Amino acid sequence: MNKPYTIRMFIPNGNPSSLKIIDKMNWTGVGLEISRPSWNEYRNREELNRAGVYILVGYQEGDDLPTLYIGQGDGIRNRIDSHEKNKPFWDKALIFVSSNHGLNRAHITWLEWALITKAQLANRCKIDNSVTPSEPVLSQSEKADTLEFLHEILSILPLLEVKIFEKSEKIIAAPPTSTSSENLLNTIIVPAQQDGFKEVFIKENCWYAIRIGGGRLRGIKYIAAYQVAPTSAITHYAEVASIEPYGDGGKYKLNFAAPARPITPIPFGQAKSGSMQSPRYTNIDKLLSAKTVAEMFE
Q1: Are 128 and 69 in contact (CB under 8 A)?
Q2: Longest C-alpha distance within the chain, in Å?
Q3: What DSSP assignment string belongs to 56-104?
Q4: Is the N-terminal amide bond of 267 cis, ω within 30° of 0?
Q5: Distance of alpha carbon 183 from its chain centroid, rounded?
Q6: What φ, ψ does residue 66 adopt, rounded to 5°?
Q7: What mean pLDDT is reported for the chain?
Q8: pLDDT given at position 274
């Protein structure tokens, strides 16, 4: 059962985008978030001499999902110095060390293993680690203490806008009703490049990396694909079975209830000119009766 807790966050230089120091009452650890541009300024902090674990967070070029690298060290500084030179993807480092020097090599190796395992199970990011360590053997009491340290880390990460260790909770779409008001925006139309349309919309029966306002999530019952040029038309639609978070940036994945169905292509306008640059919302009845995309939004 979740329990209430208080986290204290200190911004030493007044700039929250540079350095944050996080602690909790009755916790034997301390966390730091250091932005990559600020690493050289803060790399000599005393906490970075201690044993601990760290998470590098960022995006590879062209990826919708974030990339993580999870590591550990008896002294964090040298490890991140090396990554600053040879891992260009990361934007910030999240570092967790003991405040009483109570973590040893076995503890931090276990924490590294546990964090990599949780990230793999959540499947909301790409993991840059080439090797996953085996679970170290700890005594029963050591494992209990280290597990508690892990729980404290996991309680802090969402407050640092890192939610990719949490397994996605799907929103089950309500069954479509037999009657629908034309004012009910139950259909999302998404622009799709040809390759993505074929490989994902058609073959995988889903569509992802869509930004959707929280107030619209439970109202979406259908999704339609607008294929960009040279097709420049809506060509398929599908019933939505569920919606789940995708990655860590406020985007979502829509899972289809059945393969997408083709429809008579609906061009953007009478002259078949124009295009869609971002998702739009409409009603399924309007979609299925429309002659052009433009008339759905008049």
Answers
A1: yes
A2: 73
A3: EEE--TT-SS-EEEEEEESSHHHHHHHHHHH-TTEEEEEEEEESSS---
A4: no
A5: 32
A6: -70, 160
A7: 91
A8: 58
